[in-house]
Design goal:
Layout (H helix, E strand, L loop, with lengths): L5 H12 L3 H12 L4 H9 L5 H6 L17
Helix pairs in contact: 1-3, 2-3
């Protein structure tokens, strides 16, 4: 993994932040799973022009947590 400078992080950080929690969650999941951060940050940053489309389809929000009983009583 190569070092990523603060300057290289600033632009995608602002763009990704504007996408909402769900895209951020998916980015973080990819990074935790071992994806190379540089290309992933750039890819998610390129989604910024689609932010209103993503939000219109509720793709910007994380689904609520649900408790599942599992059939036990």
């Amino acid at each position: 993994m190569s070092a990523i400078t603060d300057a290289r992080l600033r632009l995608p950080a602002g763009r990704i932040h504007g996408l909402g929690p769900r895209p951020l969650f998916h980015l973080l999941r990819e990074l935790v799973d071992g994806a190379d951060p540089g290309p992933r940050l750039e890819a998610y940053g390129r989604l910024a022009p689609l932010a209103s489309f993503i939000a219109a389809l509720d793709g910007d929000r994380l689904p609520g947590l649900r408790v599942v009983n599992g059939g036990r009583q």
